[in-house]
Amino acid sequence: MSGPDDRETAGIDATTDRAVGADSGPDTVTTPTPDTDPDPDMVTDTGPDSAGRVSRPAAERQPYVESTIIMTTVRVIAPFVLTLGAFVMFHGASSAGGGFQGGVIAATTVIMLGFAFGINPVADRLRNEYLGVLLILGVGTFLAIGFGGYLAGDTFLEVSAYETVIDHGSKYSIELVEVGIGVVVAGVITGLFFLLGTGIDSVAIGTEDDTE
Amino acid sequence: MTPLEYLAAVLVIGGTFFGLVATVGLLRLPGLYARLHAASKSDTLGSVLAVAGGAVVLGVGTESLKLGFLLVFLLLTSPTAAHAIARSGQEQGVEPAGNVDAPWIDEEEGDA
Q1: ipTM, 2 decimals?
Q2: What is the structure's pLDDT at A63?
Q3: Do A3 and B98 make contact, defined as CB atoms within 8 angstroms?
Q4: Using an 8 Å Cβ cutoff, are A211 and A205 in contact?
């Protein structure tokens, strides 16, 4: 394994070459060697670009949408992942699973779509209003089941009271609570992902230099 | 042991071996692409073999059907994830380790 030694000597050669070139005359100043040799420990990391910034603003970032492999795979996988999320969500009452896990799996679908087709187009389609409606629906389902316990003649979230209303009422109501939790979790995860993917640029870059 | 159990044992041991290979490669190889190479290929094969061994143990049924789905999705998603990582690394201009010519690196580092 002589890789690091080779790289180190190459870096030393490049620096001495640059020093000699700087001595030779002013014409080499017009073509400065870009500082592409970082220290040998960090040689495989992606360093800052020419302007010294580690991350680029959204306008200069290349759109991450062209890979046919990723888009095709996501198209094939996404319905199954959403189905798995619903499966885990609905199985929370009887076996392993639950609203929290299923919600995260369902939100993974949106995150996958964001990675494959670009975060901004997906975020434009699933705006915050829709996510808010989703959250309200989830919390509303939970609260409706909870306060419905009073209507069925017992106290808050006392799902055994539903047995007098429908057959297997407690089972169905627990499932509905799980679905409500899952919808809320999926909405929150998706919203956080969109905020991390799109919101930081509009805040940080907007204060730094107004691009509009 | 029945022949099916021997087959399952061979599959699981093979999966463990490839998982070990992937771990060693991830720890020992230099650079993003070499590590990704080791991790994606060997890890996909290792997990798929182990899942197949589990499916052989469980026999024909709902559980092995689920494991079959898991196997197919592992075969689909794991190389795609590796492709996505390698692709974003190339877009960010990550250089491979060692003295190799990467066509997406424009600047020549030095003629030495």
Answers
A1: 0.72
A2: 56
A3: yes
A4: yes
Same domain for A82 and A156, yes or no, is yes
3-state secondary structure at position B107: coil
Task: State the Cα angle at A202 between A198 and A205, rounded to 5°.
Answer: 125
With CB atoms and an 8 Å threshold, state whether A37 touches B109.
yes
Which of A6, A70, A76 is opposite residue B99, by nearest beta carbon? A6
The total number of structural domains in chain A stands at 2
Structural domain for A83, as ranges: 68-208
Within 8 A of A43 by CB-CB distance, chain B residues are 95, 97
pLDDT tens figures, A145-194? 888 888 888 888 888 888 888 888 888 888 888 999 999 999 999 988 88
A175 and A79 in a single domain? The answer is: yes
Nearest to B110 among A17, A73, A76 (CB): A17
